[in-house]
Specification:
Largest sheet: 5 strands, parallel
Order of helices and strands: EHHEHEHEHEHH
Number of domains: 1
Strand order of the largest sheet: 2-1-3-4-5
Number of helices: 7
Strand content: 15-25%
Number of strands: 5
Helix content: 40-55%
Structural class: alpha/beta
CATH topology: Rossmann fold
Radius of gyration: 18 Å
CATH superfamily: Response regulator
Length: 175
């Protein structure tokens, strides 16, 4: 099951999404909800989401800035952007953040369901890839003569943004 953060300042939209989706069937639980970007970020700092479903226009912090901040917490977070404002700048920012897609408001639940299925599939694929990389890294570390370059390259793929210095002990508990 994957954790989802829903950030939308419009109560009707937020509650409609929360009550209208079959989260368990999608493989998503728990679902955290926030009324603005700052609240979403504070919640995400406690429990980093696997999937972020965010509105663009929100008080205190917009959805693009929220997505950037959450990507720093979890580089593997899948992003879905919601907006009633199809502006080129917003679309460009979403593309730069590698968002899965852009969901128009008013949100149509069948369309959202399809996009959430894509987000879950992306998460499944990333988890499989990370498991393979961990296996390969474990094999390299078990060798009598380890190839530091290969080990560092694998660690960089597994933990983007972190140091890949071999002097740092490898934390197998990373996930």
């Amino acid at each position: 099951m994957y954790r989802l953060m829903l950030a939308d300042d419009e109560r009707a939209t937020r509650e409609g999404i929360l009550s209208g989706m079959n989260w368990r069937k999608l493989g998503i639980a728990p679902v955290d909800a926030a009324t603005n970007g700052l609240d979403a970020l504070e919640q995400a700092e406690r429990n980093a989401p696997d999937i972020l479903l965010t509105d663009i226009k929100m008080p205190k912090m917009n959805g693009i800035e929220l997505a950037k901040q959450i990507r720093q917490l979890n580089p593997y977070c899948s992003l879905l952007i919601i907006s009633g404002y199809p502006e080129k700048g917003i679309l460009r920012s979403a593309i730069q953040l590698r968002a899965i897609n852009f969901v128009d408001k008013p949100v149509e639940l069948p369309q959202l369901d399809e996009q959430l299925q894509l987000a879950v599939a992306e998460q499944d694929s990333m988890h499989e890839r990370r498991d393979l990389l961990r296996d390969e890294l474990g094999f390299l570390l078990s060798q009598k003569v380890a190839d530091a370059g290969k080990i560092n390259a694998l660690k960089a793929k597994l933990y983007p943004g972190e140091t890949t210095d071999l002097q740092r002990p490898f934390a197998a508990s990373h996930s």
